[in-house]
User: Fold this.
Amino acid sequence: MNITLSITTTIYKFLSEYMSEGAANIGTMVTIAFIYLAIFAVAGLYLVLLERKVAAWFQLRIGPNRVGWWGLLQTMADALKLVSKELTGTVKADKFLYNLAPYFVIVSSLMALAVFPFTKEFQAFDINIGIFFLIAISSIGVIGILLGGWASNNKFALIGAMRSGVQTISYELSVGLSLLTMVLITGTLQLSEIIEVQKNGWLIVQGHIPAVIAFMIYMIAGTAETNRAPFDMVEAESELGAGFHTEYSGMKFAYFFLAEFINMFIIAAIATTIFFGGWLSPFGITDAIPWLGAFWFLGKTLLLVFLMMWFRWTFPRLRVDQLLTLEWKYLLPLNLLNIILMALIVWLNLTIQF
Amino acid sequence: MSYFGDIYKGIKTLLTGMSVTGKYFITSRKGAITQQYPDNRDNLKMFDRFRGEVVMPHNENNEHRCTGCQKCELACPNGTIEIIWDRQIDPETGKKKKMIDKHIYHLGMCTMCGLCIEACPTDAIKWAQNFENSVYDRTKLTRVLNKPGSKLMPGVED
Amino acid sequence: MDTTIKNSNLKSEEYFINMGPQHPATHGVLRLLLTIDGEIIKKVEPDLGYIHRSIEKMCERDSYQQIVHLTDRMDYLSSHINNEAVCLTVEKALELEVPERVKVIRTIIGELTRIASHTLWWGVMGMDVGALTTYFYGFRDREMINDIFEETCGARLTMNYNIPGGLMFDIHPNFVKRVKDFIAHFKTKLPEYDTLLSGNVIFQKRTKGVGILTKEDAISFGASGPVGRGSGYSCDVRKHHPYSALDKVKFKEILKTEGDTFARYQVRVEEMWESLSIIEQLIDNIPEGDYKVATNAVIKLPKGEFYQKVETARGELGVYVVSTGTKNPYRVKFRSPGFSNISLLNHITVGGKIGDLVATMATLDIVVPDIDR
Assistant:
């Protein structure tokens, strides 16, 4: 059997030797789903650990260092603890929606992972409307937050959920428009083709000024999309206690928590794919070894994740009306101007190509 | 133009803020202020004036300096110290003299104000620097400071 | 920014929300009954009494030496200054002149306490507006002061270093060196406070024009300390009624006229510089002499009423003692700064958002045991 990096076809070929075509198709999907679920549940846990370590280093602390060497098993232990905890809830909560909410959040964030090309051909689902799919999927998560906050019958949770609705609906625009700016250069929405285009130079270099502006807007809006500080209006622990997940405990809380970190990874991964050439190595230095692409992809993504953590541990939180002012009075008009600028640059062929 | 000026200034202040935390991030290895407490027990030394708990030092002959004058009991704001005393015959002079039977110290009630130690005329009690005072049963917080069978050190008068 | 709601046809309903007694932003066990319309605050009712320990009543039971240690437990962040207030009252009543050395040491430790309190406040202020890292930077500097206290007084927080007539014991031989080390360290760190938080555009947007207190209101509500001075009300007891060695040092009373949250913030940060300069003026020439004057073992105050006020980190603390000539006071009343300052809360936060309430409350610098006693 010839193993290539293209996991979908490999698994499909392997399965089709034993079963009919339709069964093999379904088998492939299920297998891939399990692989991704396993990888990203663990990856999410390690992102939590990374956040705690990074926070500790910013704050002159040491961070978790008790469980396992260098604290590496700390989040595993936390997850085990959360699994074993009682699932509490309020008496008058809307039980069905209350229980449904965490799954909305976690499923939507896991779904988005399917379309990323981690390296050449290592992509579960190469769909021709890739970016569109990502934007669409990432906005489903907010439904979970709204449901969770509303159904848990707690005023603090309700305020948090309403803030989340306001925030996500507003910042969705900026995320979409800044990605649209880059689509003007690539001319395609398919993620694998976007990376092909970047073989002549990463898009942030190709598109120079408008690309940098689009990247900055994207990072700000992306941070807001994931409800992280300085935009963590939803949780805002000094104002709302724990916000929308006040009434959640145990594994249901863990789903919200994990989803936040996977979302952070997704936002960084989109930025890597669109602006920084995805799995492409700088100047093609490791083109000969295809699997090193995964290393470059993860490296760039983690760097952007670190940037978001840096934001979180430095900035104060915005107030809810300032949050909207920032979006509607600053980011959105700038974004629209930026699209025109980018269109001009593409039209006049002013992009930098290597 | 103040619109773009505001954006520029805003981004600039955000970046200066990030440079502060970034500086600490880079030097975090030597800058950590965490004390890893149970691990550093061996070299954790409290200051010599630290108020951990009240103790009554005894010498090698099992003798202490407490004459039972009860000044500490009076000075204590919340009844932490109780002295049970008795008039006994002093073996040296043959006269009746006030002697302590038990010097009881309720650590659970003590606010570490130090007034008893200030009040003591014979320096019979002093601060110990032990700070790990937690026990599983609150009755263990009531301590008898004079050791069993201990006597007053000869020559100590109040 | 205009945070009031305009008249509109949209109907909304007010609702109550219980902020506290266990809430991260209420700094202890303060309970706020909020009436909210969406995010906009219509009414704030502080509900006190969750940590009332009847300290004033306990004072009637205790002797004058014993009262001192109770005041540690009021405003625990400026415990030394509270102790000093009681000692000054007793000394005033007894017409006791304490040695110069005592006065200078009391002032130095008092100013160190003020810096320690303000660094903690700065960290918590940052945390309340969402910048968690400030908390650790503030505590790093505060730890150095606490070490100085621990070495000299034996305790980090509830020091009980003052006694009527002087100090419990002399300063530790390392004291002067440690204080100088701290000054050198803190002078490099205090500018960082500004670059990290004060200059930050988000922080300024969060605090400027929020929770405005006019000078007239400050006076009529009895605001004191940095809350009053942020509104331009010159109320520094250290300046107007100097006690201990404060009449010998030069310092500026920080006054801001804006009266908003940012002004109160600035007053506190600049006060730290002033406190540093006071310590610098005194630390090199602590006069030789006794660290206490002998008093009777049982202090009996003459018959009458005695009042002394001092400036704690939060404002004006008044100690009012009524004596009938016995060894216990007949009545003790503490005029605590926190109690007057919290009464402002409803007045200055109505119309703002929940985030504004939290930011404003942070600059009132609430210590709940000080409010409840």
In short: The first helix of chain C runs from residue 55 to 61.
